[in-house]
Structure formats: C-alpha cells, structure tokens
Amino acid sequence: MKKVTIVGIGPGGYEDMTVRAINAIKDAEVVTGYRLYLGLVKDLIGGKETFCTEMRGEVERCQKAAEYALSGRNVVLISSGDAGIYGMAGLMLKVLEDHPEVETEVIPGVSACQSGGAVLGAPLVHDFAVISLSDLLTPWELIEKRLAAAAGADFVIVLYNPGSHKRADYLSKACDILLQYKSPDTICGIVKNISRDGEEHHFMTLRELRDTKVDMLTTVFIGNSHTGIINGKMVTPRGYRI
Ligand code: SAH
C-alpha cells in the first residue's frame, strides 16, 4: 500500500492522543518522525521499522517517508500537537507533489494552544491569533507586523516557539511591541511541558512576561483587554450576561 498518514500526536501524553491517531500508528508498517516524538509513542510503535532524524531534519524526514511509501509501504509521519499547525503536514504534501499515486491522510491532533489553554483555564473563548516567534523560516520584520496587528485588534495571542538559547531575547522584543497596544497589566499565562513530565504553568502580567525567560517547550498566552483570573484560572469572557 502506497500511503503516508501524517499524524498529530497531541502534546505528549497518551491520553491526549485521538483514537484515530493511535489506530494509524498501530496499523503502520514504518513510523517516521523527530526522535523526541517517536520516544513519546514508543509503546505503540513496538518492533516496527522506524526512521527518525534530529530537530532540523524535517526535509530529510519527509523525503524518507516518501521513499518508503513509493516502495509500497504504509508509512506514518509523526508530528507533535496538530500536524497542520507549525507541523509536518504541509511539507509532506509538498514533497509528494509529483507522486499523486501515493495516498495521503492527515489526522488532526490536540495543538498546544488547546492543551495549554485547558491547563490555564479558558483563555481562548473569544477570537485569538496564533503567532510563532521562530524566525528560522519567517523574517522577523513580518513577525513584528503580525504581533502589532494582533495586539492592535485586541486578539488574545498565543505564542509558539517563544524562545531558545539562541533567541533568548525574542519574547522580550515581542512584548515590547505588544506593550505599544496593550496594557502592561494584561493577564498572561505560560505553560511548559504540557501533558509531559515536568508540566508547569504560571500566571503573570504582560509587564512581568516581558522579563520572563522561556524555552522551546513553552507556549505563551496573552489575554485580551477583558481577560481575567477567576478562582485561579485564566478566563476570557465571551460576553454572556450572568
Ligand atoms: N504542531 C505543534 C506545534 C509545533 S511548534 C502543535 O500543534 O502543538 C513547537 C512549539 O509548540 C513549541 O515551541 C511550543 O511553543 C509549542 N508546544 C508544542 N508542544 C508543547 C508542549 N507539550 N508543551 C508546551 N508547548 C508545546
């Protein structure tokens, strides 16, 4: 069977995976993905053939998955969260552009904005914008433009890839732009290692977020002008009268 199934495995924990994702991995002949993510689902993979690469090996991973499929195998490509949200789905479909004979299927997963939002409470009940601070594939000037536009329109904002060793000051730079439009007292929350060992979350103001250090395993939530804290949870109201 010439097939590539692109599977979003959710934030990390088995219980946060969909039944469809679990079944696709069980049915696969070959499982490919980033080494860390294959480790998260190793019990499902069992003795199957695997191919994994490190962090920057995305193109190689997709090309290898295509090769396996073209040789007649049923291949699963694993992505964290949802494969269509800063994940591998777009690249995989592009790599297979000239091979319409290979069947493809994209299986959705729980993205970090959903799983992290649930840890914090209900921050995304109204319109929100999702922005990645990684400038590996997107010019920083465009990221700045999007931050300003989202802040100017009072969206709740979720930041993916908020920082790393090399990009230690990106979150501060992003907050400086947001502070041109948003109150320094805006309610924010950060969640690290969602659904994985060492999960932790913290609430703070936008002013405090500016001076907070975060890493690549953290997702950042910045409220809109109505977001508040209710009994220890971050909540954005939708406007119901009670
Ligand atoms: N496809 C993924 C996102 C990949 S981009 C998804 O839909 O969730 C990688 C970024 O996602 C990380 O830098 C972090 O901001 C966020 N992220 C993914 N998994 C996470 C987790 N378990 N805990 C916290 N943040 C996570």
Characterization of this structure:
The protein is α/β, with parallel strands linked by helices. It is 31% helix and 26% strand. It contains nine helices and 13 strands. The protein has helices spanning 19-27, 35-40, 42-45, 58-70, 89-95, 112-120, 140-152, 170-178, 206-210; strands spanning 3-8, 30-34, 49-53, 74-79, 103-107, 121-122, 128-132, 156-160, 187-192, 200-205, 218-222, 228-230, 233-235. The strands form three sheets. A five-stranded parallel sheet has the order 3-2-4-1-5, sandwiched between helices. The protein has a five-stranded mixed sheet with strand order 7-8-11-9-10, sandwiched between helices. The longest helix is centred in the N-terminal third of the chain and has 13 residues, at 58-70. The protein starts with a strand and ends in a 7-residue tail after the last strand. The model has no long low-confidence stretch (mean pLDDT 95). The protein binds S-adenosyl-L-homocysteine.
Largest sheet at a glance? 5 strands, parallel
Question: Could you report the average pLDDT, rounded to the nearest whole number?
Answer: 95
Rg for CA atoms? 19 Å
What sequence of helices (H) and strands (E) makes up the elements?
A: EHEHHEHEHEHEEHEHEEHEEE
Q: Can you tell me the overall shape?
A: elongated
The small-molecule ligands in this entry are: S-adenosyl-L-homocysteine
Number of helices: 9
Strand percent estimate: 25-35%
Low-confidence stretches: none
Q: Tell me how many strands there are.
A: 13
* Helix/sheet category: alpha/beta
Query: Kindly, what is the distance between the CA atoms of the first and last residues, rounded to a whole number of angstroms?
Result: 56 Å
Helical percentage: 25-40%
**Largest beta sheet: strand ordering:** 3-2-4-1-5
